[in-house]
Amino acid sequence: MDSETTDNNTGTPPPPSSAPAKPSASQTQLPPIAALFLSKFDVHTGYDLKWYRSLNSNTYSSKGLEFKSLPSGLHSVSNDVICFTQEKCTEISTGASPDHNLIYGMSIYRQNKQEQQLDTNTGAVDRDQVKMYSLGILIDPAHLSDAGTPVTWKPKFYSACWGYRSDLDKLLSDFMTSDDSDQEDLFCDNFEQYYEIHKFRGPNDLTNKFKDIMKSVNINRRKSIQTLINEELNTNESNASITENGTSAATSVSEPSIPKCDSALYDVAIDDEHMISGLLPLLEKMGPLIFKIWKLSLLRKKIILYSPQQASTFAIPCDDGSHDVSQREKRASISDFSKFIYCISLISSIPKEIRLPLIKSGVVNLDDLEFNTPLYNICVNDISFIKSIKNGFLASTTDQIILEKCELYDYSLKLESINLMNHINEDCTCDDDDLIPKIARSGDKTREAKLATSRDFQRYKLLYWNFFSESNVEDSIGFLNKNEIDNQEISLPQYAKKTTEPVSVREFFWKAFSWWATAGGMESKQDEYEIEFALFDDLSKDEIEKLVSLLGYFQKLTIKLFNLLIDIVNNSESDHLNEQNLDENSIDPESTRVNGSENEPLVPGAPKNERQNSGKTIWIESQDVYEMGLDPYSSSDCEFLIELISVWWGKEAKIGGYLGNMCCI
C-alpha cells in the first residue's frame, strides 16, 4: 500500500478522470463510515491494500484488511459480497472480551470479465490478465444513531454495512474499466470523494443534525399515518364483529395468531435485499436442522459455517440442456452465508418482553447472552483473534485449516452450494451424502452428524406447508387434514428425513403405554398440528410479511421455552428458601425428620443426597419438557435443556419424575 494513501491529510488528490459516482437516493439513510479501502490480489505480488482512508489510522487499523476482503476461494467466482468484523484498537484497555469491541466491515469483490482474461493468441486464460479487487468499508457501531439517539439494538450493528452494496459495486465497476495503473490511481479520486461524503463527522456536525431531524420527522409522520390506519381497521373490525344477537366477537375465545417480532425490527427499512431475506432460503436448505441450529445458538455456541470447494459429481442442468458442473459455482457464496449468519442470530435472539423476567430470575449475564454475535467471514489471519473470544459467535470460513483447529469453535455447519441444492429434488438420482446439510461437533473424530428430533421434523413440515407448498391455498387454511400434512413428506427436500432422528424405542413404548393407560384418550398428533397450524391463519402472501412472520414464529418458540424455564427456576428458588426456613425452625432430630417428609421435593425418584441439594439442582418433569416445545423422548433435547440452564443460570438441572424414572425417560 502506498504510504501517501494511508492518511487522511496527505496532500491534494489527483483530479478525477470521470465524474464521481452519484450518491444513491437513500444516502441520507446510510450510516456513517469509519474507513473506506481498496484491496487487490495479483498472481505475482499477492495481496495488497492499494488504497485506504480512515477517521483515525490508530483506532481503525488497516492491518489484515486485504486478507479479510479477499478470502481464499474467490478466484472461482466472478463476484461476491464479503461481510467481516475487525477489532477496534483502543489506547485504554478495558479488559473486556474482544467481541465487545467490534467494528463491522463489508467489501464488494469483482473479477474482470472472462474475455479480458484470455490470451489473444492461445485463447486460454492468461493469469497476468486476471484482475481481482475488493472495495470495502468499516462502520463503528458507536457512530450509529437513530434521530440523534444512539442505537442499542445490536442487529442494526450487524447489518449496518449492507446498505452500501449498490454504491460500492458501482464504484468498483467503474474503477475496473481502467486500462493501466495510472488510470487506476486517477479513479481513486472517486473513492476519496465518496469517503468525504459518507464519513462520520461527529455529533456536532450540522449535516448529521439535519439528517437526524429529517429522519425523526419522517418516522413520526409514518407512525402517525400508521396509527390512523390501525384505528380505522380496528373500528371496522369491531363493527364487523358484532353478531346478529348483539354479542361482540371479542367476548369469544381468541384464536392463536403469529406473534409480532421485536418492534425494533419495524424501524429498519426491510426490502427484498435486506439481510433478513436469507431467512426463507435458510429454512428451505436447512430442513429440520433449522431447529437444531436454533438450539445450539441459544446455547451461545461458537458455530462456523462452511461449504466444500471441491467439485461435486452431481451434474447441474445448463440453459442449453446439457449438464456441466465446471460452469457453475461449487460452493455457497460468502454473501449467502452472511445472510444466514444474520438470520440465525436473529431467530435465536432474546425478545424484549422476556428481558426483565430473565434478569429477575437471576440470569448470569444477559448482556453477553442476549444475542449470538455474528463475526461473519473469518480467515487464517483471524485465528489469534478468535482464540481470544470468550463468548459464542456465528461465523463462516473458506479456509479448511480453521476447521482443523478444533479449539476455535464448538460446532460446524456444512452447507453445499446453493446452486447444487436447488436441483436436488428435480434431478438428483444419487444418494450423495455430501449434498446433505451437516452439523458436527468440533473435535469429534467420527464426525457424527447431529440430527433434528422427530418433533422438529413435524414442525418443519408445518412450516414447509405454509411457506413453500403450492398446495397451501386459501381454501385449505383452517381445514387442515392430517393426511395432507403427512403427505407433505413426499414434497419435502430429500435430505429432510435423513437429518432427523429415528423414533426411539422408549418413545414407542411410552406412547403405547400412555394409549393403554388412558384407554385411547391420549392427545393425538392431529391436535398439535391444528394448534401449530392456527398460528399461520393470518399469514400474508407478501414476501416481507412472510419473513417477519417466520421470525415472529421463532421468537414465539423462544418466549415459550424461557417463560417456562423462568417459572421453574423461580419455583426452585422458592422451594429452596422454604426448606431452609423449615430447617432453621426444626428443634430436634424427630421434628427434623417430620418436617423433611412433609416437604419432600416433587421428584420421588431422586436419590437422598440429590434431594438435600435440591436448591442447587433444578428438576424438570418430562411434561414440562414437552410444554416447552421440546421432545422429552429425545436425549439430545434433554441434554440441550440441561446445558441451557447451566449456561443461562449457572445451575445444575436434571430431567425426570416418578413415571419418568420408572420408564428411564
UniProtKB/TrEMBL annotation:
InterPro entries: DUF4484, LCHN/Anr2, Lipid_Metab_Assoc_Protein
Domain DUF4484 residue range list: 501-663
Pfam families the record matches: DENND11, DUF4484
Entry GO terms, CC: lipid droplet
Region spans: Disordered: 1-26, 577-614
Compositionally biased intervals (Polar residues): 1-11, 588-598
Entry protein name: DUF4484 domain-containing protein
Record organism: [Candida] arabinofermentans NRRL YB-2248
